[in-house]
């Protein structure tokens, strides 16, 4: 599947707002990509974020490929039971964060994104995980990839795969995403 043949829905992360983030760059560089907007990035509520994502999938005018980073990847896992699956061709998940870990975000242990779903995705999934991500252990990333039926790319020591960890443009991610898209059927 060509990138231009899909609606790329980018599911962002907690604290979103960095224009140099690879996901923001992708939304500007790919005509078929759009960020799924949320009202509150500092106190996310699962029900609100789910509604935003499901609505974006329902309104897409082409087959959908979901792209999630951090909490955005976890949100996609939560959304599976609510999505019109006939519209979704795959998901590309990057550095899902461990929202089951106490103290992940200081002062924000009272949230409704736990437990993280462990059901297998009903469409192809590619996950990229780092060995030194401060938001999740590599072992937990491996566990989630196995549960979700995701092919796992080991990104080495790439931190949280964000601007803070040195991946602004993240060309390796774009290459991995293009190969993933090539593997999908239209």
Word description of this protein:
With 186 residues, this protein is α/β, with parallel strands linked by helices. It has one domain (3-183): Alpha/Beta hydrolase fold, catalytic domain (Rossmann fold), CATH 3.40.50. 30% of the residues lie in helices and 16% in strands. The protein has a 6-stranded parallel sheet with strand order 2-1-3-4-5-6, with helices on both faces. Helix 2 crosses helix 3 (71-79). The longest helix has 14 residues, at 46-59.
Give a short overview:
The chain has about 190 residues and is of the alpha/beta class. The chain has one domain: Rossmann fold, CATH 3.40.50.1820.
Quickly list its features.
six-stranded parallel β-sheet; 16% strand; Rossmann fold; 30% helix; alpha/beta
CATH H-level homologous superfamily name: Alpha/Beta hydrolase fold, catalytic domain
Corresponding CATH architecture: 3-Layer(aba) Sandwich
Number of domains: 1
Q: Measured on Cα atoms, how large is the radius of gyration?
A: 15 Å
Shape: globular
Number of helices: 5
Main sheet: strand order: 2-1-3-4-5-6
Number of strands: 6
- N-end to C-end Cα span: 5 Å
Main β-sheet description: 6 strands, parallel
Any low-confidence stretches, pLDDT <50, length ≥5? none
**CATH class wording:** Alpha Beta
- Structural class estimated from helices and strands: alpha/beta
Order of helices and strands: EHEHEHEEHEH
- Beta strand %: 15-25%
What percent of the residues sit in helical stretches (DSSP H or I)?
25-40%
Q: In CATH terms, what is the fold-level topology?
A: Rossmann fold
